[in-house]
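Entry 14. Structure prediction run on the chain below.
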Amino acid sequence: MEHPIPGIGKGGWKKLSVLFFALLLLLGLTTYTDYGTHWDQRNNRRFGTAVYNLIMEGEYDPFLDQSHCMIHGPLFELTLAAAEKSAGVEDTRDVTYLRHLLTFMSYWTGILFFYILCNYHFKSPKIALAGSLFIVLTPRIFAHGFYNSVDIPTMTMFTACAYTMLRFLDERDIKWALTHSVSSAVLIGIRNFGAAIPVLTLALTLAYGKSGRKAGVAYAVMTLLLAYMFWPMIWDDPVGGFVSSFASAKDLFYPFTYLYFGETIRDAMPPWHYTPAWMLITTPPLYIILFTAGLGAAARHLTERGWSREKRNTLVFLLWLIIPLASTMIFKVTLYNGWRHHYLVYPAFMMISMEGLRQVKVWADGRRGRSAAVALLITASSLCTAYTMAANHPYEMAYFNFAAGLFGETQDSFPLDYWGLSYRESYERILELDGRDRIRVRTFRWVGEYGVDSLPPEDRKRIDTTTTEEGDYYAFNDIRGYDGGELVCSVDTWWGTMGYVHRKEAAGAHPE
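Output returned:
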């Protein structure tokens, strides 16, 4: 039920939605250079370049045999490589910023698809706009929307596939069969787990009997052909290559440890509650409250008699949320720090939260006190989250809600900078402190070495990184903290220190 603000009808909310997306685009175009280089960027770039060379020149790089390449799918990295080649970009800083820009455009497109999906399901541009705003005001995902070229495009295409799936199931015609096959194949080309979408789609078509059979066959055939086209590494052995890509997810090598609720996890298979717990402590509390209310409404929809559009859509959203999380637990898939691998489920989480918002609005209907309280709560939450993001920019990826603090100091319980994004600022601080033409900085493995990629060329020439020898300075992130010596500067957030810089003359024992 709609509760329009006086003077704003449905048309007004649509205009506000256009303004919202225009402002979001402007925000991205003015901030995409604010973020540094993460430690997966060079590997991701090499992956895309290898696939590009395979297609254009027939050169096969053995790097493509790595598990990392097999599970991620090449399509988005190939797109970035093609854009890099077309633009003639060579300098690492320019490459980094081009990747950030195109990754943000993928994120922006994903928010747009979510708005379309939400509006299609709820028939309410107001709820769709609220849901889109809440996703943008999810600090960690917002930051990843600029540099995570794996999980953000996956989240975007899962959202697009959810929309085209519902349209296909409603229309059951060739037009939407082909549209849904394109989105499904693109998703599979980005992440192999996208194969769950065709399976779910075809299972749901069975509920419509003969009316969906012809379109279902067209969808299946086109999806297979396009998915094969979008994955060059398996052209020689499509069945074997695709099956082995799933096996690779269990064999990913991760030589480091996790910090999880203050305990060190020494393998890459954390406990079953790992992702749900990360979601709980890194999502703004209001969304969790709305999600809880939405789950109750979803349960009621599923227990209703008969088969309805509302019941079907609710089932799709719940399966979209549950299957990726459950499959990771059941098959013991390798996971890394944080829950970025499961960002693909967040739009489903938010759809259920928007069902909760709809139920709250119904509860407040016609009661001024309740309506005012709801409006105040949503406004206060949004402003608080927006201020938190602005105050900690560009380190929104370190966000934790108050629940994380219940288990002790956040700094001591969870990693803040597991991707090494603070190194750029650490190097910038060193350059400000030391005017010499050449400065040696000892850092931790490749994560510190990659941090120079987003510096200007003249600054990169001044920084000489090493992982084994003495340095004039010692720069480390919180994952590989350094206890010795004089701390000359640090990269700080509300949740703790992400990066440390120590001076040589006061340095103590070297970290491993």
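Strands lie at 258-260, 263-265, 439-442, 463-466, 473-477, 487-493, 496-503.
Filed with the rest of this week's runs.
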